[in-house]
Amino acid sequence: MQYKTEYLNELMTTVVKRNPGEPEFHQAVSEMFESLDNVLPRHPEFIKSGVLERIVEPERTIKFRVPWTDDKGNVHVNRGFRVQFNSAIGPYKGGLRFHPSVYEGIMKFLGFEQIFKNSLTGLPIGGAKGGSDFDPKGKSDNEIMNFCQSFMSELYRHIGADVDVPAGDIGVGGREIGYLFGQYKRLTGNFNGVLTGKGLSYGGSLARTEATGYGLCYFTSEMLKSKNKSFDGARVVVSGSGNVAIYANEKATQLGAKVVAMSDSNGYIYDPNGVDVAAVKDIKEVRRARIKEYLNYRPDAEYHEGCSGIWAIKCDIALPCATQNEIDEASAKILASNGCYAVAEGANMPSTPEAIEIYRQNGILFAPAKASNAGGVATSALEMSQNSMSIRSSAA
Ligand code: GLU
Fold this sequence. Notes:
396 residues; alpha/beta; 7-stranded mixed sheet; 5-stranded mixed sheet; 15 helices; 12 strands; binds glutamic acid
């Protein structure tokens, strides 16, 4: 990428040099620079005061050892991270991701994007991200608990209700937040809003579970309105089958759409009658099984191994809710040639820069993650305020 502003080209070179082997982080910074290219000439003060040099450097990166024992008594050692990227407008805020692909570059890209997403909500929250290369797939509850307790045994000294407030992300949901919160409380003796995404009985907020997926659909609806379109009667593909994907499916369906496909990291299902979200919830939330099992609920549906094929299914609206870079140039071209007119990102950075260029060339409406998936973290900020006021979420 070549920018018109020479200063951005130089700074991008420095970022790449300073953060070797971290392509996802380079990508996130480069996208931000692209959007600033037209702004900087009007704001020389940003250059003069080094705002960009500061913002591309995390305030602090914590990297630690996480030893834990499996059910057979074997010892495993994973790596834990917390990148406290920016606290200019509030305490660090952002999720924890447990996934084998996690390394510093992924943490930095997510933390960097979180700064802008959080500030865009208008709420007083800074940006951070954390996690581990731990793979929760196939682990027992006891193993997950052992891991979470060990992870928190280091993390607790770096976080706090007014310091840094982690939450969930891929591989971290209500169960993990419960184990992490319990360990934090045990180590510090403090019962406060140090984590969000908690259960309702111990300080969680109503609708935090649904917030990211629902928020994505509300945002998308507004975007569609600008072109006199809506979810009503639209054919939708939702990738993923985690928390964001499930509630995106639920809300899109409530708004009159037919969600015809969903996926997990092994493959995707195609159900031309509309994916039954109750079945997906049972598979993923209750039984923690693979999406392939959907065929036991709906034998007429199809299952295909591999993930990228999901974008070849004809749709009007694509909601990528799985992971980063899941739509590349080739997939974007197929979406465009199938008549897809809107892409709204539920995952963080699911479209490659080349894919975004294809959306532009084809006039596809595009909702970038920093705006369209901010419903989750915005509801987390509500949970923080409720916790600091010692008030409980109520259904009334
Ligand atoms: N992991 C979510 C995100 O990407 C939520 C973070 C939070 O609630 O702090 O925005």
